[in-house]
Amino acid sequence: MKHTLRILTAALLGLAMIRSAVAANQPAADPSVPLQKIRHKLAANQPVKIVCLGDSVTGLYYHTGGRRAYATMLALALKIQYPEARVTVINAGISGNTTVDALRRLQKDVLDHKPDLITVMFGLNDMVRVPIPDYETNLGQIIQQCRNQGAEVLLCTPNSVTDTPKRPVARLIEYCTAMKAVAEKYHVPVSDVYAAYEALRSRDPLAWRLLHSDEIHPNMDGHKLIAETICRAISDQDVSLRSVGPLQPAIPKTLALLKAGKPVHVLAMPPYDTLIGPALRAVVPSAKVEVRPWPTADQTLAQIEAAAKLIRSSPPDLVLVAIPAALLPSIESPPDDAIHAYTWILNWSLSFDVQQWDVVGIAPSVLNAPQSPLDSQRDQFARRQILAQDLGLIARPDHNTDPPQQILEHWLRDQFTAEKAN
Fold this sequence. Notes:
The chain has helices spanning about 1-25, 35-45, 70-80, 100-110, 125-130, 130-150, 170-185, 195-205, 205-210, 220-235, 250-260, 270-285, 300-310, 335-350, 375-390, 405-420, and strands at about 45-55, 85-95, 115-120, 150-155, 190, 265-270, 290-295, 320, 360, 390-395. By secondary structure, it is of the alpha/beta class. Strand 1 (about 45-55), helix 3 and strand 2 form a beta-alpha-beta unit. The longest helix has 22 residues, at about 1-25. The radius of gyration is 24 Å and the shape is globular. The termini are far apart. About 45% of the residues are buried.
């Protein structure tokens, strides 16, 4: 009798599983095919949890504005492809980490979340501290421990970098090759982020350069490419995040201080050091605003970059970056030193990790509408850099003739609207 009940129970359980698959109009997942389990769950609109394990490229740092990185963008990409799916993506990236550190914190930072899928991206720090045999062994142990918990694994090669003595490209390629060898040994799929970056570089070297916040770290545009590449490996479909703009509202700390009736300490480049106070009070009449000017007159981009290094030692609540148009290059052929300096002005304006104060970039067109093709190209350079950092952008709308003060006020009002919408 007990034997019969066991058979009946097993049969009913199997029937229930079949019905669930049929109801979702999806075939059951084949566990022998890489990533088929998570693809099946996504297609069936079942809850899916992903943990992205990595170093500073994975984590939340100034390279991407400190509010989100490719883990968040991966969730957005999957949502585009599976609109009804319930996806949770957890960022488990820590600056300076190698595969050695990953093994030490694997249980607490990754496995305790009971994920369906774990993406693993290491190499940029391993290549300077961990020999390739140890790197391969560590990756193998990560794979085995994840599988022991029932999670699927996706190895991700690092993004390509600027060749430097500390991190020569040839050595990075060796680590990417080693990762692929481990993947083949353990029958684990690989998302070849390095190859995706290099494919872009072969088509458009400037576009590749503008994906970077520094020699090794991608900015948000770079993180979008990483997320698209990983999403393709998961779903076997292409997706684009190009139209995804910065988070709104762009100034959450400033808005919170204004709502609480507390002073807002602003560091602003001219002429916004004189415009921001009246603009804030036009929107919030009771606003208490204390402004510290950030001089740019007779300064080079390099000198402004040097001044930006002091911001973290005495941070304000809001930083307004407005580089004079005369200092900016054309977006069509910007010299590398100009790209470097402008990027690092934004980098130093931000806190090191999770964003602790607001940073907003202001395009030159707000002050003066472009009068020539060069003016427009300089304005486009500033816009590209600011948005690539995932920062709030204030720019003059097309065919708009409003004075700068009015554009600033309108943008601030939109911020309150965006906050209410959230």
